[in-house]
């Protein structure tokens, strides 16, 4: 599955070479008109449930999207994330940091394509370890919310007279 919000032709060249070598069919969620010509399997105008289904059914995911990356992780998929923006460009639209932060959190830095690399390196993921970290983070978030709600209840408890 290919889901790119950016326009980097080098990425498409690398992905096509990889797919040909591994005898994989490319499924594309097109963002730009040119993306519709990249495969015989193109899914246009999809909604959230179709997006989730495509991710869940993919054997491999290539993306430059934060959400493409996070759903790949949540569905325990093999994936490779690309920088959407040149890493050397420092501007407000550069969203690379949230992707690198996400990958760091799960020790998946090796699933970020190195910009200058001329080939795709795809390592297997230990999803048992990743799942344990997801569960730990969910529990931490739940406890934090519970603590905040209890505090809110104490601070806003009124007596009616």
What does this structure look like?
About 45% of the residues lie in helices and about 10% in strands. It has about 160 residues and is mainly alpha-helical. Strands 1-4-5 form a 3-stranded parallel β-sheet, covered by helices on one side. A two-stranded parallel sheet has the order 2-3. Strand 4, helix 3 and strand 5 (about 80) form a beta-alpha-beta unit. The longest helix has 29 residues, at about 125-155. It is elongated and about 60 Å long. The mean pLDDT is about 90.
Topology:
Blueprint: E1 2-3, H1 9-22, E2 27-28, E3 41-42, H2 48-57, E4 60-63, H3 66-74, E5 78-81, H4 96-105, H5 127-155
Strand order of the largest sheet: 1-4-5
Report mean pLDDT, rounded to a whole number.
Answer: 88
Order of helices and strands: EHEEHEHEHH
Task: Work out the number of β strands.
Answer: 5
Terminal CA distance: 62 Å
- Supply the number of helical segments: 5
Which spans have pLDDT < 50 for at least 5 consecutive residues? none
Largest sheet: 3 strands, parallel
Shape: elongated
SS strand fraction: 5-15%
- Helix/strand structural class: mainly alpha
Summarize the entry for a quick read:
The protein is mostly helical and 161 residues long. It has helices spanning 9-22, 48-57, 66-74, 96-105, 127-155, and strands spanning 2-3, 27-28, 41-42, 60-63, 78-81. It has a three-stranded parallel β-sheet with strand order 1-4-5, with helices on one face. The chain has a two-stranded parallel ribbon with strand order 2-3.
């Amino acid at each position: 599955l290919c889901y790119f919000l950016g326009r980097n032709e080098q990425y498409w060249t690398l992905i096509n070479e990889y797919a040909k070598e591994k005898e994989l069919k490319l499924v594309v969620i097109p963002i730009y008109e040119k993306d519709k010509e990249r495969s015989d399997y193109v899914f246009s105008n999809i909604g959230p449930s179709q997006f989730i289904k495509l991710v869940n059914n993919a054997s491999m995911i290539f993306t430059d999207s934060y959400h493409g990356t996070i759903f790949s992780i949540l569905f325990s998929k093999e994936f490779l994330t690309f920088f959407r923006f040149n890493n050397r460009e420092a501007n407000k639209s550069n969203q690379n940091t949230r992707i690198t932060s996400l990958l760091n959190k799960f020790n998946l830095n090796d699933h970020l394509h190195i910009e200058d690399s001329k080939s795709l390196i795809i390592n297997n993921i230990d999803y048992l370890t990743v799942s344990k970290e997801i569960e730990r983070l969910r529990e931490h978030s739940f406890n934090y919310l519970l603590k905040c709600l209890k505090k809110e209840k104490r601070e806003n408890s009124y007596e009616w007279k």
